Amino acid sequence: MKFGRRTPLISVVVPVYDVEAYLPEALDSLLAQTYPALEVVVVDDGSTDGSGAIADAYAARDPRVRVVHTENRGLGAARNEGLRHVTGELLAFADSDDVVPPDAYAVLHRQLRRTGADFVTGSVARWDGTTLTELPWMRRLHKHRAAEVVEGHPELLGDVFAWNKLFRRAFWENAGLSWPEGIRYEDQPTTTAAYVRARLFGVVPDVVYHWRVRYDGSSITQQRSSLDDLRDRWTTKRMSLATVTGFGSDKVTRVFVDRVLAGDLHRYFIEIPGCSDEWWDLLVAGVREFWGSRSLVHSGLPPVHRLTGWLVQMGRREDATAVMEYVARLGGPVPQVRTPAGPRLDVPVIDPASVDPAALALRDFEVRA
Predict the structure, then answer these.
(1) What distance in Å separates the CA atoms of residue 305 and residue 360, rounded to the nearest whole number?
(2) Domain-by-domain residue ranges, the chain?
(3) Strand 38-45 relative to strand 10-16: parallel, antiparallel, unpaired?
(4) Where do the Glycosyltransferase 2-like domain residues begin and end (predicted)?
(5) Which 8-state DSSP code applies to residue 14?
(6) pTM for this structure?
(7) Where are the beta strands (DSSP E) in the chain?
(8) What residues are paired with 14 via a beta bridge?
(9) In angstroms, rounded to a whole number, what is the distance separating the alpha carbons of residues 167 and 204?
């Protein structure tokens, strides 16, 4: 199939592993793209269900689909294998249990062409099969249609996803990008490197990806209470931070540590009650490694999680557990109190006199009337 010079081929790499219930919807969404020049490279990563056969059936009836069958090696390896088979000038990635809205690649390509950027990124909505909810923080990061450099918009490093972006293949290869293998959370090290190595990257406010909510416990992001998960998370944070510090901008590093690197810690803090001793020790070690010299009280976390982060750093397991259990029981906003020193959190399960005032303090925009 041939296209005009102004219509470069987009190669979409789709890693697949045991997703027979979701794969048809994912592939249908890709083949329904309004962007005309598309190839879909499906990598069947040793699936034990009918996923490989489903992919083969799509390839048999649509020449835009090609399938590569491999032994099971994990998501990063499957994506890298797919990259060895692409032929397009432009690259995209889609997970096999999600959906890409029809105009996504047309929108991303339009901004890529307009700006001359090395890649373009768009917003994301969570999808439960019926309802779409745009992630508020993604909406904020993608507020304007723009062309950026990382020093001008370092918070965008928090958009770590692989699948809401369109890359120039020449940039990808010249920048030496690939996905880490044998580890979870492989998106962040690679996307971080893309941001800091790009001459320019584009931003669009459009939702270009529908990220499926899965409730069956099989999603990687639903396994945070495991030691392997936490080890991998610290490893990918370490890799990403090394890339950012190597870039050499104090501003970018500060924003990255405070607002990006700390961004998902609250999801781990809620696992503190009932966690194993080994998991707790690993959590403490990681918090001290990354924020020991610059406490999480300076981070962009919500107030109660800044407090919890401080308690973790101090090794106060019982108090951190009590705070997280209290928040779970509360089911709503944590109370606040005004004091002569200023407004602060009011958490009755710990003695405020035993806590650094900065760990309880509220910022002006956090104070409720």
Answers:
(1) 10
(2) 10-217, 262-366
(3) parallel
(4) 11-135
(5) E
(6) 0.92
(7) 10-16, 38-45, 65-70, 90-93, 119-127, 132-134, 146-148, 165-168, 201-212, 336-339, 342-345
(8) 42
(9) 14
